[in-house]
């Protein structure tokens, strides 16, 4: 079954340039072959680079715990090194309006 999926990730590291490009490559590799798309919001605060990735689309995951399991199995070392926070919502598509019982 397909689910509507919304994932937000906050990545932070010491400023060294091209952080957005690096996060783009990480996400391309991680979500290759899926129907997920993302938008990156890049900021530099003092001596740190911050990239917030808003990922959304349709997936085969049925719950947030399935997403976490996927990330634990497939995410790169750099993904985990830079990740400082996340938020996830997975909404399985329901057939009909459920008013018929």
Q: What does this protein structure show overall?
A:
- Strands 2-3-1-4 form a four-stranded antiparallel sheet.
- Helix content is 29%, strand content 45%.
- The longest helix has 12 residues, at 19-30.
- The mean pLDDT is 93.
- It is an alpha+beta fold.
How are the secondary structure elements laid out?
Layout: E1 3-14, H1 19-30, E2 35-45, E3 48-59, H2 64-74, H3 77-82, E4 83-92
Antiparallel strand pairs: 1-3, 1-4, 2-3
What keyword list fits this structure?
101 residues, alpha+beta, 3 helices, 4 strands, 29% helix, elongated
Short summary:
This protein is of the alpha+beta class and 101 residues long. The chain has helices spanning 19-30, 64-74, 77-82, and strands spanning 3-14, 35-45, 48-59, 83-92. The chain has a four-stranded antiparallel beta sheet.
